[in-house]
Write a structure and sequence with these properties.
Blueprint (H helix, E strand, L loop, with lengths): L3 H7 L14 H29 L2 H14 L1 H10 L3 H16 L8 H4 L9 H7 L8 E3 L3 E3 L1 H14 L7 H19 L10 H17 L8 H12 L4
Antiparallel strand pairs: 1-2
Helix pairs in contact: 1-9, 1-10, 2-9, 4-5, 7-8
């Protein structure tokens, strides 16, 4: 589930890269067209129904719940990246929101001044100097890279979803997570300009670099404004 932040941020960033590592562009474009067709005909209509019929407080609670599941992944990757202070912050968030916040439905930790972060094993590999590799588009999954493909399964295990033994419960949670993520994208789709494939590709590559460097390479008011918008959406 950690990858969901990528889909949220992809559509909220301006493409700024002058060069993109995309040697498989022709194949990637074909897969992107397939994914886009699936999204427009199935995922988006369901997300619109969810957004229109589910009260906002419930939507925020669902978003908070999945964010809370990611805190263990955040904490461990902070440690692996040599940031014990942030690791303690994120683990404290998990403890507070799981207990006082009723299994994460309420983001009490943020109201107590504990900032939320997004870390995954792909970012950890990046901080260790592992190159991203060429840009890839994966069927049903979307934008990725060899480094993120290696990191995604590890982070998925750490979120706890894949460790659920009952298949129906695991699939149900995964489907709800995907639905909640797609519904949150509805408000920012209008930011896409020009060639959608290029916009999403360059935004993905930009945000990946931004996250690996903890935002130190890029200062962009637009990025900051969009992060504020997305985080406000999750607060009760």
């Amino acid at each position: 589930m950690k990858y969901k932040k990528i889909f949220i941020l992809i559509l909220s960033l301006k493409p700024l890269l002058a060069f993109s590592n995309d040697p498989f562009e022709e194949i990637n474009r074909g897969i992107y067209s397939f994914n886009d067709s699936v999204d427009q005909n199935f995922a988006k209509p369901i997300a619109e129904f969810y957004d229109e019929t589910i009260p906002l407080p419930i939507q925020i609670g669902v978003s908070n719940f999945f964010n809370n599941l990611e805190e263990i992944d955040n904490s461990l990757n902070q440690l692996l990246q040599g940031k014990p202070g942030k690791a303690l912050n994120d683990f404290s968030r998990f403890c507070i929101n799981t207990t006082i916040g009723l299994v994460g439905l309420f983001d009490v930790a943020s109201k107590m001044g504990l900032e939320r972060h997004d870390e995954d094993f792909g970012q950890t590999l990046g901080t260790w100097g592992v190159p991203s590799g060429p840009y890839l588009v994966i069927p049903f999954y979307g934008p990725s890279s060899p480094r993120d493909l290696v990191g995604a399964p590890i982070s998925s295990v750490l979120t706890g979803t894949l460790s659920i033994e009952r298949d129906d419960a695991r699939l149900g949670l995964t489907a709800l997570d995907a639905l909640e993520t797609r519904a949150r994208l509805l408000d920012v789709e209008s930011l896409i300009v020009g060639d959608k494939y290029i916009f999403i590709r360059d935004s993905y590559l930009q945000v990946t670099e931004f996250e690996v460097e903890d935002g130190e390479l890029t200062e962009d008011d637009f990025v900051d404004d969009m992060e504020d918008f997305l985080l406000e959406d999750e607060d009760l």
